[in-house]
Amino acid sequence: MRTSIINLVSFWMTHKHSDFVSDPGIAESFENWCKWASENDKASATQLVPLQNKRVLPTTERIIKTTFNPDYEPVVPESAIESIHDIDSEEFARQLTLMEAKTFCELEVNELLNQNWTKNKKLAPVVTKMADRFNIMSSFVKTELLSHTTVKSRLKALSKFIEIIEHLLKYKNYNGALEIISAIDSSSVRRLKSTFGNLSVYE
Description:
Number of domains: 2
CATH topology of the largest domain: Son of Sevenless (SoS) protein, Chain S, domain 2
Radius of gyration: 23 Å
Keywords: Guanine-nucleotide releasing factor
Strand content: under 5%
Number of helices: 13
Organism: Arcella intermedia
Oligomer: single chain
GO molecular function, one term: guanyl-nucleotide exchange factor activity
Order of helices and strands: HHHHHHHHHHHHH
CATH architecture of the largest domain: Orthogonal Bundle
Protein name: Ras-GEF domain-containing protein
InterPro entries: Ras-like_GEF (IPR008937), Ras_GEF_dom_sf (IPR023578), RASGEF_cat_dom (IPR001895), RASGEF_cat_dom_sf (IPR036964)
C-alpha cells in the first residue's frame, strides 16, 4: 500500500507538477508527510527523497531571482512611446523575459508528449501560447525592419534589435533571442543587402 501511494504521488508530480507549486495546501501536506516519514517511517522517507527533489521546479519567482540583478530598477520611458527606439534595449529584453518566464512555468510535462501540440491545441495550450507569441514577436520585428524607407533608419532599427538580442542572451532567454533572430534571418529581411552591408559601418 505504501509503495502504491508513493507511486501515485510520483505520477501526480510528473504530470501535474504545477499543483505542487501553485497550491500551498498541497505543498504543505506533502512537506508534512515527508517530515512525518523521516521521523516515523524510514522506508517511506527513503522513497520520498527523490520526490522532494522533483518538487523543486522552476517558478517565475525563482527565475527572476536567479536571472536579474536584485538592485535592477526598471527603465521607464520619460515620454509616450512612439517607436522601438523610445524603449531601453535592456528593459525591452527584461520585460520579454518576464513574460516568457511566466508562460514557461505554466508548461505541463504532458503537453510535450507525443507531439500533442500538432494534434490538438487543447492538449497543449501553453505550447500553443508560446508558439503564438513567438510568431507575433517575429512578425513585429519583420514589420518594424521593413517599414523603414531609408537604409539609415533601417540600420538603426536593425542595430536596436541586435542590441536587444545581446541582452536576451545575457538573461539566458534563448527563445526570445530566437524570435528576433528568425525575423532578421527571414527571406524578406535578408534580401535587404544594402542594410546588412552597411551594418558594421553603422556600428
